[in-house]
Structures are given as C-alpha cells and as structure tokens.
Amino acid sequence: MTKTTSPFLRLQNEMTEFAKARDWEQFHNPKNLVMALSGEVGELAELFQWLTPEQAANFPADKKEALAHELADIQLYLLRIADKCHVNLEDACDKKLALNNEKYPVDKCYGRAVKYNEL
C-alpha cells in the first residue's frame, strides 16, 4: 500500500485539517495529545469495568456505539501523536508485528501467556 492510499495517512490529514480549522494546532503537541489519549483509554476501560469476562466477550449491543466512539477516539489520537512525532504508524506496526513474530515463536509460546523472556 502506498502512502497516498494509506487509510492512516488519510485520517492523519483529515485530523490536521480539523485541528487547523479550529486553531487547535497550538494545543496539539505530543504531551497534550498523550494526556488526551490517556483520558480516552480511561473512558474505554470504564465501558468494560464491571463486566464479567463473558459479558466483555459478548459486548452489550446497546453499548456498541459508545465502544466504537471510544475506539475511534483512541485511534485518532494515536494517529495524531504519530503525525506530530513524525512516525509512520503503519510502518511501525508492520515492524512491531515482525519483531513480535521473532520474540514469540509459535513452538515456544503456543497457549502460554508469558513474556518472551520467560519462554
């Protein structure tokens, strides 16, 4: 996928235009964006806070839209932080997946929830 067709890049560009139109660029530094992201992650956690594991796995239909909004907020803040820090998030994700494949070989970690240094 080329950069010009990347959904990440499209969203980053839209977020930049959204912020510029509101004169919010002045507030969108990495520190402030990370703080905002932390708040959104807290709002996501709140949706799951008192659910049983079974309820969480079958998230209540009447709360799905709220879940989608929180996930979108988190994704958009991540993209904004990456943009401000000049990180190609799509490339970073590809590299991290490759690294995780090395750190967690199937034959050593299959069915085990342990950190790579405990395999």
From TrEMBL:
<protein>
    <submittedName>
        <fullName>Nucleotide pyrophosphohydrolase</fullName>
    </submittedName>
</protein>
<dbReference type="InterPro" id="IPR025984">
    <property type="entry name" value="DCTPP"/>
</dbReference>
<dbReference type="InterPro" id="IPR052555">
    <property type="entry name" value="dCTP_Pyrophosphatase"/>
</dbReference>
<dbReference type="Pfam" id="PF12643">
    <property type="entry name" value="MazG-like"/>
</dbReference>
